[in-house]
Design goal:
The complex is a heterodimer of chains A (279) and B (366). Chain A is of the alpha/beta class and 279 residues long. Chain A contains eight helices and ten strands. Chain B is mainly alpha-helical and 366 residues long. In chain B, helix 2 runs antiparallel to helix 3 and helix 11 packs parallel to helix 12. The chains are: A alpha/beta (279), B mainly alpha (366). Chains A and B meet through helix 2 of A and helix 10 and helix 11 of B. Chain A: One of its GO terms (molecular function) is ATP hydrolysis activity.
């Protein structure tokens, strides 16, 4: 039995004539411990797909099965890292994470919970900033807090919705390594949504492109057969990497071309000559 | 030319007002003593300019009325009477002074006399208390009500009564508007159920609120001879001023950032936790903006309501002085006007400070 299963998912927003079908016929299966990346253009319905999996949205038709059971609501088993961090600005780093662990482990004592908070803050190396508010942190630090918050709840699966999209290239690279490092420790199942093909190849076991919406659907999958731990610089010369990368980019370019509809209508312009007001 | 002058004055006045605001804002950063001294200088200058203009204006009005009085005496009673009238006005005799916009010096004198009056009344009260302390102790021992001072209230007492009324009204508004605002903000169906109510009652004038409260409180206090003016006025002030808080709270609660709601859902927070840990903190800035408006509205409508309710506050003071028509009545009214303005300004600053203390996004505040 697959760990996560998406069967013939359709998602429509609105009703009647004004409705738009964002996702059509999405099928996906993931095994336990697998790292899958979904790559797609902006506006192709990636966030909708993520929200269907984490339970914030319900599909119009089709079903999402998590460990064989349909997903009807959010769950502590599936941790989510949001695109825009979504930290509560009035709480400090520690309080933000404490709030999450308190919900996830309601039976633990306050001291135990605090221990967990400290442990995860240390894991993303933010211990000196534990009493700071999100506003005082840089974008990369904020995202690290979001990662710590998601992981502190000890989820079985971790869903990342363009987690590094808003960061600069250097911070991005560091955080990719950090996430991979954390993931490799206990091999949680991970789903990464991204618009960066290189990020997907570097991090995931499989890459699946999402054809742009409306009516977005998943394209053919690409397996990444590069051994872990992967080395960013060495990977650039790896023939498998180059081949996969080119194949994915070519595929994305092709569907990008398809998306552009060429207008064949010729407009006939009236023949006009300017009127002279002088004579 | 003259118009240009006025424009210039207005400009410098508004600039200095801004400076004053900035200076009184706690979060302002001072870059150097020189700059703040310069600001203080500009403020002082504009105050002096204002007093100067006021002085000139009141003098012009004084002369106009004095000339009219003399002219009238001349036409009705002949030359001799006119000369007597002029001499009377010039001598400063209070019986024939023109009764117009008072000059700054008159207002200052009135302020001093009001303060002196307060001292007299205070001494009076102390003497009264001393004289009756033995009797009152006996009365209390017998289980009867002690005799209290029922003499005239001093200006300071009046100001304190007004402040007390405003705070009682503000507290009432807070206790009614914030919980209701949260409830209707959380539930769209309750929001539509309450919407007509808010839209209809929001624009009702303070006078009508007073009458409504009077109808109800009068019946509730029926048979009770105690003075209910304070109760009526603070309830009217509260009801009149609470709408800004109600609307702002409902709006703040209903428009919480979708991201925060998603976080609450993903963390699987309970309803109680969701409301108190996510929704309320994120709507605090809007709630406080509403409370600030409520406090300033409360202070504004207070005057009209105290006047109607015959509550011993600034509103009644102003009205009684106007009806009184004594020689220094006009300047007492101006004193009250300044006191009202300054207290209103201080109350607003107080709210802003509290708002800055409790809100998380300090930079987005005014």
């Amino acid at each position: 039995m697959a760990y996560l299963e998406l069967n013939n998912i359709y998602k429509t927003y609105g009703e009647g004539d004004g409705s738009t079908e964002v996702l059509s016929n999405i099928n996906l299966t993931m095994d336990e411990g697998e790292f899958v990346a979904i790559v797609g253009f902006t506006g192709s319905g990636k966030t909708t797909l993520v929200n269907l999996i984490n339970g914030l949205l319900q599909p119009t038709s089709g079903e999402v099965l998590f460990k064989g059971k349909p997903v009807t609501d959010t769950s502590h088993e599936r941790g989510v890292i949001f695109q825009n961090y979504s930290l509560l600005p009035w709480l400090t780093v520690g309080q933000n994470i404490y709030m999450a662990v308190k919900e996830a482990f309601p039976k633990e004592s306050k001291a135990d919970l605090m221990k967990r908070v400290k442990e995860y803050v240390a894991m993303v190396s933010l211990s000196p900033a534990i009493n700071k508010r999100p506003k005082e942190l840089s974008g990369g630090m904020r995202q690290r807090v979001a990662v710590a918050r998601a992981l502190a709840m000890n989820p079985e699966m971790i869903i990342m919705d363009e987690p590094l999209g808003a960061l600069d290239a250097l911070t991005r690279g560091n955080l990719q390594d950090e996430i991979l490092n954390i993931w490799s420790q206990d091999k949680r199942t991970a789903l990464l949504i991204t618009n960066d093909v290189d990020e997907g190849i570097y991090m995931a076991d499989r890459i699946i492109p999402l054809k742009p919406g409306p009516n977005a659907t998943l394209g053919p999958e690409f397996k990444i057969d590069i051994e872990r731990p992967r080395d960013k610089t060495a990977m650039n010369d790896n023939p498998v990497y180059k081949k996969t990368r080119n194949a994915i980019i070519e595929y994305l370019m092709d569907i990008g071309e398809e998306r552009k509809t060429v207008s064949n209508v010729e407009y006939k312009l009236p023949e006009l000559t300017p009127k002279s007001f002088v004579a | 030319m003259e118009q240009e002058m006025v424009l210039k004055n207005e400009k410098s006045m508004s600039a200095s007002f801004k400076q004053l605001l900035l200076k009184l804002t706690p979060s302002v950063k001072k870059d150097g003593i020189i700059k703040s001294m310069k600001n203080a200088g500009i403020t002082l200058l504009s105050i002096l300019l204002f007093i100067g203009l006021w002085h000139m204006g009141s003098k012009a009005l004084y002369n106009k009325e004095a000339d009219y009085k003399v002219e009238k005496a001349l036409q009705e009673r002949g030359e001799e009477a006119a000369a007597a009238e002029r001499a009377c006005i010039e001598s400063g005799d209070s019986s024939c002074q023109p009764n117009t916009l008072p000059s700054p010096t008159q207002v200052w004198a009135s302020l001093k006399s009001l303060v002196a009056d307060h001292q007299v009344i205070k001494a009076d009260k102390a003497a009264f208390a001393e004289k009756l302390s033995a009797t009152n102790e006996k009365l209390i021992a017998q289980g009867k009500d002690p005799i209290v001072y029922t003499g005239r209230a001093s200006f300071i007492d009046i100001v304190l009564t007004s402040i007390k009324t405003v705070f009682a009204g503000f507290l009432l508004a807070l206790l009614i508007a914030v919980p209701i605002g949260i409830i209707i903000g959380l539930s769209p169906s309750l929001r539509s159920a309450f919407n007509w109510f808010i839209q209809v009652f929001k624009p009702v004038s303070p006078v009508v609120w007073y009458l409504l409260v009077f109808m109800i409180v009068k019946t509730l206090y029926i048979g009770d001879s105690s003075d209910n003016a304070f109760v009526i006025s603070f309830i009217s002030v509260g009801l009149c001023a609470m709408w800004a808080t109600l609307v702002n709270t409902a709006m703040g609660v209903s428009s919480v950032d979708k991201d925060y709601i998603n976080v609450a859902k993903v963390l699987k927070l309970g309803t109680f936790q969701k409301v108190f840990k996510v929704i309320l903190p994120s709507s605090l800035p809007l709630i406080f903006t509403g409370l600030r408006i409520t406090l300033s509205v409360a202070w504004m409508v207070l005057i009209a309501i105290e006047l109607l309710a015959q509550s011993q506050g600034l509103g009644l003071f102003v009205w009684e002085e106007f009806q009184n028509g004594a020689n220094d009545s006009n300047s007492k009214i101006i004193v009250a006007m300044f006191v009202i303005g300054i207290i209103g300004f201080l109350l607003d600053r107080l709210m802003l400070t509290v708002q800055n203390m409790v809100s998380f996004n300090k930079n987005e505040m005014a």
